[in-house]
Structure formats: structure tokens, C-alpha cells
Please model this.
Amino acid sequence: MRQYNILICGVGGQGIMTLGTLLLSAGMPQGYRVIGAEYRGSAQRGGPINSTVRYEIFEGGDGSDERRFVYPGELPLGAANLLIAVEAAEALRNAFYLSRGATAVVNTYTIKPKTQARYPSVDELVAHLKETTDRVYTFPANQLSMERYGSYRMANAMLLGVALARSDLPVPRETIEGLLRSREEREALALGFNGA
Model:
């Protein structure tokens, strides 16, 4: 049995829990044991929010005794194989969850607090993330979503497309496409996948 751990982070209102639910649903048809957790905190006030998805992947006959493989939904530090940051600074705030060699997909969109005089640039955030992993990919999902669809609603589908193209996410693209509700979401997924 091996694990594949995903951390999705952002702020309230960015669809973090929806993206987490989608990835939970995508693991079930693969035969994985799927576990997840959400950390809402001050999300209703635009504060940080995280969603974790953990796949337990059974190989051979190691899945026969379910009692042997019980893990919490929370991720231990240094355990994330994939980080999807819907807001750039949240990637840095959650960097301690990344394992060595993990993949980080970072939206270039930032929400700067009004009270903070100095805010790191996306390049500075990426430099800090690269202290843990070289596999850091930025993508202007909010910008492209606004240009093509007139809203930010397709940004998460684009980021998921980047994750499918650049990481070892153990879910086929076809499974994700089958879970998306609209043609626009599937188109946005392809845009992220091909633009990664």
C-alpha cells in the first residue's frame, strides 16, 4: 500500500472545498481508499482554508485487512505529494506540508491584505517553495478565466489541468472530465493541461 497526499489551499470563496470534493470523488472509481479533511477557520471572512485528500493505493493483496490502514484526513508535515494553491501566498503559508520532490501548482493570483505594507511577489514565493522542491509550476488561472469566461469560476479547473499535466496525480484525466459538470469546465481543464 502506498499513499498519495494532496493539499488544496486558498481563501474563503475560492472553491477550495469543491475542488477537494472533486478529487475525493475521482479517487473512488480507481479503487483507492479515500480520506479527506477540511480546515475552514475564518473562511467566511475571506480567511485561509485548506482541503486535504489522501489516497491509499493498494497493490497486490495488501488491502485485505482494512483495520491495518486507518489514517486521519489531516496531513502530517512533509507528507504532501501535490499542493494546489488557488491563492499564491497560501502556497508559502502551507509549504511545510510539502514532501521533498512534491509538485506545487500555484495560481499567480494574490489577495493582498489591506493592512500589510509589504507583500511578497509571486517570484519570491516560488523561490521559497523551491527550497523544498524544484517542481513548482505557476499558472495565471484567474487572469485567463476572467479573459475567457468573464469570471474567476474556471480558475480551479485550469489549475487541476496543470496538476494533471505536471504531477504524478494517480487519477486519469478522463475520470476528472467525467466529474465536471459543464463544457466550460472541461474546456478550462484542457486549457490548464495544455498550457502547463
